[in-house]
Amino acid sequence: MGVTDALLAADRRHVWHPFTQHAWWPEDDPLVISRADGVRLYDDTGKDYIDGFSSLWVTVHGHNEPRINDAIARQAATLDHSTFLGFTHEPGVRLAEALVTRSPQPLTRVFFAGDGSSAVEAGIKMAYQAKMQQGQQRPLYVHVAQGYHGDTLGAVSVGGIDVFHHTYKPILLDTRMVSSPGLRRPGQAPADRAAEVLAELRALLDEVGETVCAIVVEPLVQAAAGMLTHDVSFLRGVRELSTEFGAYLLTDEVATGIGRTGAMWAVDHADIAPDLLTCGKGLTGGVLPLSAVLTTDEIYESFLGDASRTFFHGHSYTANPLCAAAALANLELMDERDTVAHAAWIGRTLGDLLKPLEADGRVLEIRRIGTMTGIEVVPNGERTGFRICTAAREHGVITRPLGDVVILMPPLGITEPDLQQLVAAIRHGMDSVYA
């Protein structure tokens, strides 16, 4: 038995992979990834692949970025970890400053978490406790159908993708859900769909608005739902309604933030500021797990006072110095390389390259904002999207579908020749599956 076969055999004996149906997985020709560099991943045979989905939407400049690696090594040589519970350290403070200077006002306070789900969990708890300590009993959350905010119970409570969430409904928080602004009738304009859902939201708030502490949305793109996109007027309308009814607006930018939509934050497209903003994924450049909740002085100050007003939330590795150092290096590189503008260029270039597919009878719809792209294909037997992505490997591209939506979200350091190969590989994959 070769090394790879032995490794996969051990995997099958001991490992439980996330979001993976293990009844199928052993037969799915799983790759063993042995190294990465730039926008490419390498398997155990040495074959290289463009990382077409940024290793689950996290990689920013590319893999093995020397500046980020050096920042981690320098930090490890001085302070590898110290608790942030009542103590502080320079990397954590400097990162909070860097995030505030890059974020819409009045977001002035930063609470660090570990991953996207834990940031959302902290944010929704923060919203409830702030309202309670302001003398308002508002235990209800409003969220959007087809939403996804992570896998902890609070985050699942404000999710809306049935296949991921229905099992846990009996043990979730009390919430109310409005329709997805990204699910439009044939021929319906995005702005008209946004107006419909905003009317639905207003009617709901007229009924229960006094008990709502927060409205939770993914701005512009509902990524895990298959890159469902909506009009900026929806965000502006939700901002106005949340203010009118005294609820906080929490925008979950774990997937959409850090340049993915061609702006630093998706809310920048709508020129609004939420009360709470969560970020993660690309925060460290895709190297280490770190997330954050950005919020206002108003919310922060509602926690000041005696011990009972403390925000009793956090974890052992909150603001880990290695993660913070990686994130600082990532943000500095983004400034130097004008990464956000380059991301906007990537989006436009992807749009041009994919244009011929818009009229392809095998494609139902292409949805894209910035680099976040979903190609919904016509089903052709079982697991069509998965089979297309598997076939694309033969042409040097790795990506992962969401059902029958092929996802493209390359690292923000990608160049035009690699974008051309990325799109060509998907076309070849489609030709193979539909042959």
How would you describe this structure in keywords?
seven-stranded mixed β-sheet; 2 domains; alpha/beta; four-stranded mixed β-sheet; globular; 435 residues; Aspartate Aminotransferase, domain 2
Explain how this protein is built.
With 435 residues, the chain is α/β, with parallel strands linked by helices. It folds into two domains: 31-64 and 338-434, Aspartate Aminotransferase, domain 1 (Alpha-Beta Complex), CATH 3.90.1150.10; 66-336, Type I PLP-dependent aspartate aminotransferase-like (Major domain) (Aspartate Aminotransferase, domain 2), CATH 3.40.640. It has helices at 3-14, 54-57, 66-78, 90-101, 116-133, 153-157, 162-165, 190-208, 232-244, 267-270, 297-301, 321-337, 339-358, 384-393, 416-434; strands spanning 33-37, 40-43, 48-51, 107-113, 140-144, 175-178, 212-217, 221-222, 228-229, 248-252, 276-279, 291-296, 363-369, 372-377, 397-398, 405-408. Strands 4-12-11-10-7-5-6 form a seven-stranded mixed β-sheet, sandwiched between helices. A four-stranded mixed β-sheet has the order 1-2-3-15. A hairpin with a 4-residue loop joins strand 2 and strand 3 (48-51). Helix 3 runs antiparallel to helix 12 (321-337). The radius of gyration is 22 Å and the shape is globular. It starts with a helix and ends with a helix. The mean pLDDT is 97.
